[in-house]
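All the exercises in this workshop are built on plain-text protein records. The record below serves as our worked example for the rest of this section.
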Amino acid sequence: MMAPVRSRHVRVVGTYAASVAVSALVTLISIPIVIAVAGPSAWAGLAAGQSIGTGASVLIGFGWGTTGPTDVARAAPAERPRIYIESYRARLLLTLPIAVLAVLVTALVVPSAPWESALNCAAYACTGLLAGWFFTGTAQPGKFVALDTAPRVLGGAAGVAAVAIGAPLFWYPALQLVGILVGVALSTVTIAGIRGVADGVRVRRSLTVLRGQSDGLVLALVSAANAALPAILVAGLVPAALPAYALADKLLRFGTTAASPFVQFLQGWVPGSGPDRVRSRVRRAAIVGTALVVVGSAAFLVVAPWAADLLSHGRIRLPWVLVAAFAAVLVLLVGAQVVGLVCLLALGAGRQLARYTLVGGIATVPLVVVGVLSFGAVGAAAAVAVGELIAFIPQCVLLVRKSRGPVSVATTPTSSS
């Protein structure tokens, strides 16, 4: 009996991993093609639009990508479509003002290919409407790939192919946007049906739903800020330290991406077992998380210096102390995902998790300023690690306490009738 269960779990993780790998491959292939056809300045404009759009998508997603998997995993199957459609309507209400503002900012600040970059911004902003979190929480990796990943990746691939054969640069972000919107439409119709989509936005109800999602928004915003702000501070305060920091940070993101299929699986598996079995699964998830951080950090320590040398053609060398600092950040980031997003959310501790995460995020900014001014890139990385640790320690203490008591069921507007 255990062998088929393990085999199914391996298939789920493998499916999520394939989704990550295909998305990364299309992204990597697109970079040299767009640069060769449109030039480095136009590519830089598209990249800036992507960054601004990604920030907008965090606001549009309003934290459902963070807390949504647990919400739907804990809900009764009959309630799950309603949870999704209320989330969809609320996010739809946010999309127009946020996306328009992001597009205007992009068009104004990007000097090269401003309108193509603005369209790229719109495409990435609309990823906040995607339903991948729902399929993660309901443990449906096949639908995650078919309805979330595939349309988005195919749209991006079509855009790259169009530019490669001589189409105007406009078609690259345009086809990417089409793919994302097709994914949103297919996912929503599959989950809620045509009637659920056709009901439209109910402003008052959507505002109530958004108020109940504030903890998820805090978690998502702090995560996005912690990913972007340290590099901005390094660039502004000690520009000479930026190349080493930026390259090490890029390798760190590859490390967290490699761990994401396991985290996605656990987000659906732990809370989806029902209140009686959550604590036992939390303990097993903690073991998996420990194994992930041990293997991941060891691999990072070995691979990062070699990868940096390869990717930079030997022009950027990462000192061992910088690699060690980023390995510590990797341990804390992946550990926090398992402890917080998997275990604490499954135990109904979303509000406390948001509070601890916010404290750590606030502490990180002055720590990075002091660190980069004192020790350059190494100081910045060490400061990020300390900021993550400030949030992680109370999360672990809370997990120990919560795992011994009864599982609380958080009631939010997205799960109430």
Remarks:
- The mean pLDDT is 86.
- Residues 255 and 296 are 7 Å apart (CA to CA).
